[in-house]
Amino acid sequence: MPPTDTPRFAILGATGAVGRELIDLLVGRGFDADRVRLLASPRSAGLEVSRPGFRGRVEAVNADAFRDVDIAFFSAGGGVSREWAPAAVAAGATVIDNSSAFRMDPAVPLVIPEINPHAVAGWAGPGIIANPNCSTILALMAVTPLKRSAGIERMVVSTYQAASGAGAALMAELEQQARDFAAGHPWTTDVSGRQYLFNVFSHDSPVGPDGSNEEESKLVRETHKIWDDDTVRITATCVRVPVLRAHCEAINLTLRSPMPEAAVRDAIGSAGGVQIVDDREAGRFPEPILAAGRSDVLVGRIRADRSQAPGIGYDLFLAGDQLLKGAALNAVQIAELLLGGSDATAANAETTRDA
Amino acid sequence: MPPTDTPRFAILGATGAVGRELIDLLVGRGFDADRVRLLASPRSAGLEVSRPGFRGRVEAVNADAFRDVDIAFFSAGGGVSREWAPAAVAAGATVIDNSSAFRMDPAVPLVIPEINPHAVAGWAGPGIIANPNCSTILALMAVTPLKRSAGIERMVVSTYQAASGAGAALMAELEQQARDFAAGHPWTTDVSGRQYLFNVFSHDSPVGPDGSNEEESKLVRETHKIWDDDTVRITATCVRVPVLRAHCEAINLTLRSPMPEAAVRDAIGSAGGVQIVDDREAGRFPEPILAAGRSDVLVGRIRADRSQAPGIGYDLFLAGDQLLKGAALNAVQIAELLLGGSDATAANAETTRDA
User: Fold this and answer.
1) Which end of chain A is more exposed for a tag (fewer CB within 10 A), N or C?
2) Per-residue model confidence as pLDDT tens digits over A163-180
3) Residues ≥6 apart with Cβ < 8 Å to A91
4) Of the candidates B151, B313, B156, the residue with the CA atom closest to the CA atom of residue B235
5) What is the ipTM of this complex?
6) Which residues in B lie closer than 8 A to residue A302 (C-beta atoms)?
7) Does any CB of chain B come closer than 8 Å to the CB of residue A239?
8) How many beta carbons lie within 10 A of that of residue A332, not counting itself?
9) What is the model's pTM?
10) In the predicted model, is pLDDT for residue B351 greater than 70?
11) Nearest residue in chain A measured CA to CA from B309
12) How far off is chain B from A142, nearest CA to CA, in Å?
């Protein structure tokens, strides 16, 4: 897109969990806080948002709100994206959309900067770029190095997903249920409609005729699009666990050509945005609380799967911050890619807040 | 074993989480509460145990304690089992051991009554019978019907394991951490050494040279022994989640011969000790809080895995009470099998407490 020293941003969904992270990331990465416009539904208009190094007031989204905006981050759900993305584009903005509304549109790039930056090479804007599903981003950060080295024949993914994927309200309800338990009160279930503390449940997105829920289907089809390769065979089981903001995934892999375990470890460990946490003696492996607040996806439990031919089968376990690399950080890295001012690999090696 | 109308039992580890369930199950299933002797380490000797329909006092275990005992349930860890099982057998008892101490001993039957009751056919006692690992029992309850119908080529298992697998102390600490959170106190970590609430961590059993932890290795080798078939290829990732007493497992299957999805569902649904919970429209699937306190293993999310050849690949998700079918109930069912007074399939169809 046209070079600018002082890009102007808008955040639609500024009061949500991802919106808050977007503000912190833009400010923390040195963008001009005065050039970040906060947008939300009329219900939230007028709210003041105060974050470290940032103060702003939320404006109600309308067609004029995108005037003079270079990049508009959308993080307010698919319906809002479908309603307002055309207006933002008409006003000249590039929309980086965190919803699933446009991800499978053949005209819309679906981008993880470390993996397929070429999908937006020479981007002139305005237009829409889609940010992938959180579970998909985290899985592909860990696994793409092996695809590049050996090819991937098949992936079996089981997720352990945090509350944050459903937004700030579910995170708050999970915390409230811990207080309910301590006080001996009935569960507060306004958001989830269920006991979530001390429980695990199948991801509550709609289940399609093939028996997969939407989260599972996204993982398959978004991976195919990002890798531009629909020959990789994928199956997933997506599950919500009572964790606040970082997802885990157990991934079983079948490679196309054999790789020794040391080479698997080297390939993953040398990839940008990934950190190996795999100390078998100390029993230190990826955990949500180690990944929360960190840019890197933590990968561990890397081991040969002896149920497959030697060198072909591997198991691993990852943890990654759903709000950062799974959402806001990836979106900001896409913006940096468009603005030409950043190397996603280097930027991602930093930690954006204390873990 | 010799028929007796009024078998005499001992429970070694009577004050633990599994010990309490053993008492409740024996009383609830009509055995004579006066003929249940409670044993534990000298530290717990003298403690009074009061359960519905039962009052007893704990005796310190010693060589005399097994005199006149027909069946001794051991649930106090591998070290205690290795120390006291020989004395119990010498005193004429049959030991049903919940630890892993003797499971892989070729002379010791490893039994799930619904699956391999023939392993104790004609059992005369005294001797040792091993109760399998909880994750193994729950997986095989769901999957054995498909092995019988079509054969199983390969299983990829990811677990979501509750605190109860590590005992009553970890369950109490998880609850305490919820109270710590509500009060704004530092985490109580005496048992786990970590933040467990709002977190997920790799099963903390020792990791072997092949990178598998003990829990994962047990699932592979115990399955081979119970099925008497080491050609089935198995890989597992075992993970602890902040749940109190029921485990979940995501299982991806490769069958040896194709089966239509309806036949898969029929085979699982008609097996004793299993209940299908799989309402795609209502989004009702197995959850730990639905399985807690129930005898049956709940199985759902049954669906064709389109990453494999048609009819060969299936995914499913289960939840089962780790303390009941994963431990105490299976042990009591073994006892009933030896005593000849019970059909495990019918007994298991009942619920032992309100869910």
Assistant:
1) C
2) 999 999 999 999 999 999
3) A63, A64, A66, A67, A69, A126
4) B156
5) 0.94
6) 211
7) yes
8) 29
9) 0.95
10) no
11) A233
12) 17
